[in-house]
Design goal:
- 4 copies of one chain form a homotetramer.
- Chain A is an alpha/beta fold and 342 residues long.
- In chain A, the strands form 2 sheets. The first copy, chain A, has a 7-stranded mixed β-sheet with strand order 3-2-1-4-5-10-11, sandwiched between helices. Chain A has a 4-stranded parallel β-sheet with strand order 7-8-6-9, sandwiched between helices.
- Chains B and D meet through helix 6 and strand 9 of B and helix 6 and strand 9 of D.
- Chains A, B, C, D: Pfam families: PFK.
């Protein structure tokens, strides 16, 4: 059998571990061949490939990023070029395609599947916002890096009696903020799922200092936003896909807090460090298992599916279901913050 | 309400995070008080306590170990002294006891519960061998440390064309070995659940070098043991609880391998570093959620239960069920190693 | 004898380790007492103190920040209030003062010394810009964090064929940028000591991509600035001490590069994470030795001096000499970048 | 010009960074070629080589180990085969040889130099026992790993009121033990330079527990040994070079302590993890600078020398002087432990 692999969307720790796992499983279990498409869907559109054998994936387990490269392609272009992609797959004799990516990539995978291409998807998102799977690889690494950084910021804030706001990733879902906030003992965690009230944030800050506490650490998801009418957020405009940009919510909230409370506020935007470098052991295991089970599914003819973590097991779910909605933080998980806020 | 807390069994990253979470939740949600018993069940037997308020748990989230201390007590002693323990609890007006510990601690908790004491247990085990919960805190930290160490050993083994055996924790269950082996790209993983055949291990080593590979990394759970008749393991005798000691299986296997294959073999026993130090972000979140939900259950009168991770949610399971058996590595999880062995 | 201690200026990993070392040495070697002044010189001006005995410094070795707190005070205020500070020192019976801090703190220490107060200074600067000592504690930690972050950014840049600019600390001296750039394999390192030519930077970027290289990592000290006439840097104005602010040089250079080369550029500002958290082992040893030798000097009557690392030994140098000039990167050290640029 | 490179002796973080630096400097500054000999002197004896260009060293900066491999060769064999080695060097047109290694490698380098071969040595030793240089690369990484491990062991020891002995590397010199002991707050540090008195060690342990301290951490260099008559150390025999083996001093001391004091003692032998994995930023910078300056010296005809760190500068010292004696811990450095012991 001949398997095609591509990695779509943004960089994510564990992508290389998945690629290695697919290749090793295909080779060891089935004697199958694997062909990589370069730079995500673009490589499939433009027929740019690289053969992947066991030697080619040596050392990939611990390396961040994706050796196949990745690039974003507008969904409408993908939709328009389905026939072209099917041609390329046919030319190379690809029996099953394993696309690894986030919402966009999996939606495209679903379209291909609907168009008759055998596909097994592998979910990838730092933000943990893909539905129908407990977790995706990359998320644990991102939370782990954010936590380590916030651990470090505590001591600076303490020594100078400051408010420190840390902006973490998460445009539409606050999972990284929630987990890093819990893990690093933040006094305040703001997520996109629940608009914040600036008055309340000010009150929390003031109360902590009034009680004699030495500092305040706030974790702010990049997609967090104020309750209408409580604070004006400068508009970041729309990005290339027509999504509204939330640029610099932490910075703007910091300025507002400083003005309203008179306390010294500093802001740190963690940015790309959250998505780079070697994956945590958790993500390496999850990525390896995803690759393994996707390759088994590919060979067993269970197509149009996505691998998913359910408890301790790797399961298959229909791609259609997986891309139907984003997985955002539930009210019960939001409620867990209460005892640790303030 | 008045909550009692104690930590039993071996040290484990996240214990302090649980204690903090119990105290913060009891205080913030319910205005309840928390009393800590020192050195596990011994503190309850000998009436040694320490009051735990929010100030007392400040800074505990990131600290390894247990601020309450821990000591092992023989189960029969606990059984014999149930009345004494009930007296101490009554003296202090404890409404619910929250014991945090492994199989032994939870079994004692179950006994107390049967004897009429309101109890909510919190599972703790580096080895991940407690049943009825997907995971316990401490396990991710142990796997993470073992993985980092094995990452480091790869380069030494490569540079000198050696076999390197790394002994990790896991007397009865091979979870740490399995996950660290997958995460660190071990060529060989030996677990207690599946006796190893020394011949096969030798064959694997020889084949790798014959293929031109530069080195072999083997991960060996401390409870791994050879198939009867394939190798003599020196007997470690029985420990204080009557369990057979498996001392130094990696060292002994290493000597055997060196003799049989003529290759240079080195052994590293990771030991206590796997259970110390600051918990990973994953374990901090899990420990915090366990403490939170155990305290809620304590206040809601849901006793005789243990908190458990099920998928992404924290659930309650009867203590009786949780201690009925050890959770060992399943055949399907063992099978996952195949594509990554050799 | 009675020793006073204070920590001035910005937060720095190792401050707590110095405090612990001073207290342990004073106590163990001399049976002397130590009194801490809170929030730097402000604590001395306002007579806010805290007694420091061996129990009080337990656990400080590994903790970032300063348990004494720190605050910046304008130099002219210090100068004006010398008599007031001498009074407070006399009231508490302080025989020798050990101020720990950067250029500002050591200049104030020199003034006090000139005014007859026995003083032994301990140099502290993340930026490594204090003269007459090979190194100061905090620098190794900052370089180490920056390097780890840049290691992570490599994989993201590679996967997306980007230019990534990382802004690190260093207003007047490029030591952090130089060392982190060397340690993390940056393709470009910009420091305050040598204004950069935007044309050349563009050429380097273009050449790398033309050669088929996958990405460019540039490390930019916050005080780096363009050659006059090659690029307009938005003026950050003056800060509260009348120093020119260099805000966002990396961000501005990134925009310029993107426009001129057409390549995708991302910018990360590391910020406060560089100065927080537990010190590296190197900084813990250096901080401990500084504290030890400063306390010995205090008891041996060698005042008006600063401890300094010279090769492998801790030496004393006159405060006057130490504060005469900033230590910037030398031309020979700058030249070392050449083989690793591009 | 044509440069030969080889790496001798044990694995050491930074070796690959030196190789990369030599190749980049030779290529960028001088347009010279570099040839690597495989597996240390053995590659030179047996004429096994690998060409090293800039592409071949890509990614080596952060990788532990040595891509050239390393093997130990008995000094007498090297001495006997000098003519053979000169022939191989001549065959390949090597103008200067840059051997990277410890005492053995540098002694061989000196012999070659005396025999008329242009040589520039680069010192390498985890143990930091090479004379005439302030430090060598690898040492900071080893201390850093040992410190991190001891940090972790503190919490286990605290929670169980134990004595924990940690055996670190250092057969003839106690530098790693001294620095890791200072950095990790050990209560006891034993080094080869000063035989220990078991009575005193017992007294220290007993005093700490009598004072109410929760635990004792002891750092023991593998070459530490008892004062004659105070304790019998089982003899490890001689190794292949006729050196006395000190096997398991920490384990044996632990048994003795347990017996004499009645306290629970645990022993951890860090072993190979100290010499593997990615180098610290400090070691990457030092390794890079050593490679750079050795290559410059090679081209400037300054042969028979070794590069050395002196303060902040890289200097050259005659190989003859560098190998005349081992650099052991000085009495003044040993004295620095006093305030931190107990």
């Amino acid at each position: 059998m001949r398997i095609g692999v591509l990695t779509g969307g943004g960089d994510c720790p564990g992508l290389n571990a998945v690629i290695r796992s697919v290749v090793r499983t295909a080779s060891a279990h089935y004697g199958s061949e694997v062909l990589g498409f370069r730079d995500g869907w673009r490589g499939l559109l433009e027929d740019r490939t690289t053969p992947l054998d066991v030697a080619a994936v040596d050392g990939l387990l611990t390396r961040g990023g994706t050796t196949l490269g990745s690039a974003r392609v507008a969904p409408e272009r993908l939709n328009a070029e389905l026939p072209q992609m099917k041609d390329v797959l046919a030319t190379h004799g690809i029996d099953v395609l394993i696309p690894i990516g986030g919402e966009g990539t999996l939606t495209a995978a679903h379209l291909l599947s609907e168009a008759g291409v055998p596909v097994v998807g592998i979910p990838k998102t730092i933000d943990n916002d893909i539905d129908e799977t407990d977790l995706t690889f990359g998320f644990d690494t991102a939370v782990s890096i954010a936590t380590e950084m916030i651990d470090r910021l505590h001591t600076t804030a303490e020594s100078h009696q400051r408010v420190l706001l840390v902006e973490v990733m998460g445009r539409h879902a606050g999972w990284i903020a929630l987990h890093a906030g819990l893990a690093a003992g933040a006094h305040l965690t703001l997520v996109p799922e629940e608009p914040f009230d600036v008055e309340e944030v000010c009150r929390l800050v003031t109360e902590r200092f009034d009680r004699g506490d030495s500092h305040v650490i706030g974790v702010v998801a990049e997609g967090a936003h104020p309750l209408p009418g409580t604070m004006d957020l400068r508009d970041g405009g729309l990005d290339e896909y027509g999504h509204r940009r939330f640029t610099g919510v932490a910075q703007q909230l910091g300025e507002e807090l400083e003005q309203r409370t008179g306390k010294e506020v500093r802001t740190t935007v963690l940015g790309h460090v959250q998505r780079g470098g070697t994956p945590t052991s958790f993500d390496r295991v999850l990525a390896t298992r995803f690759g393994l089970h996707a390759t088994i599914a590919a060979h067993e003819g269970r197509h149009g599916q996505m691998v998913a973590l359910r408890g301790t097991e790797i399961d298959l779910v229909p791609l259609e279901k997986a891309v139907a909605r984003l997985k955002t933080v539930t009210p019960s998980r939001l409620a867990e913050r209460a005892a640790f806020t303030g």
